[in-house]
């Protein structure tokens, strides 16, 4: 039995719709990001252009929080990549921790 309140269902539906609309505009899909987290997860094609676009998008999103974007992980196949970024005030601290 599905027990989510009605407002949670509509919010979830709206979020999914937004993700689908945004993903139709770009091959670089932002999979995970929210106001309550500083981690960004992108699925994108394995190409120099897509990698540069994802980097620019991560930098723009982190800059909205007045933070820096630091790439923490990138895993690629021949066709696609999954790349993680973290928004942080101290880029050196994250790089030292890796």
Q: Return Rg in Å.
A: 15 Å
What is the residue-averaged pLDDT? 76
Largest sheet, order of strands side by side?
1-2-4-3
State the end-to-end CA separation. 43 Å
What amount of the residues lies in strands?
Answer: 25-35%
Question: Which ranges are low-confidence, i.e. pLDDT below 50, for 5 or more consecutive residues?
Answer: 6-10, 12-25
Number of helical regions: 3
Task: Tally the structural domains.
Answer: 1
Sheet with the most strands, sense and barrel status: 4 strands, antiparallel
The assembly state of the depicted protein chains is: single chain
Class based on secondary structure composition and strand pairing: alpha+beta
The number of E-state strands comes to: 4
From the spread of the alpha carbons, the general shape counts as elongated
Fraction of residues in H or I helices: 40-55%
Topology as a string of helices (H) and strands (E):
HEEHEEH
Q: What does this entry look like structurally?
A:
This protein is α+β, with helices and mostly antiparallel strands. The chain has one domain. Helix content is about 45%, strand content about 30%. The chain contains 3 helices and 4 strands, in the order αββαββα. It has helices at about 5-25, 50-65, 90-95, and strands at about 30, 40-45, 70-75, 80-90. It has a 4-stranded antiparallel β-sheet with strand order 1-2-4-3. β3 (about 70-75) and β4 form a beta hairpin. The longest helix has 20 residues, at about 5-25. The chain is elongated. The termini are far apart. The model is unreliable at about 5-10 and about 10-25 (pLDDT under 50).
């Amino acid at each position: 039995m599905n027990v989510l309140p009605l407002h949670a269902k509509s919010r979830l539906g709206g979020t999914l719709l937004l993700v689908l609309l945004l993903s139709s505009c770009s091959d670089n899909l932002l999979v995970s990001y929210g106001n309550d987290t500083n981690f960004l997860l992108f699925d994108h094609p394995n190409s120099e252009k897509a990698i540069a676009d994802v980097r620019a998008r991560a930098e723009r999103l982190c800059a909205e929080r007045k933070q820096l974007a630091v790439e923490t992980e990138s895993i690629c196949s021949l066709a696609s990549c999954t790349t993680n970024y973290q928004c942080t005030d101290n880029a050196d601290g994250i790089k030292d921790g890796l």
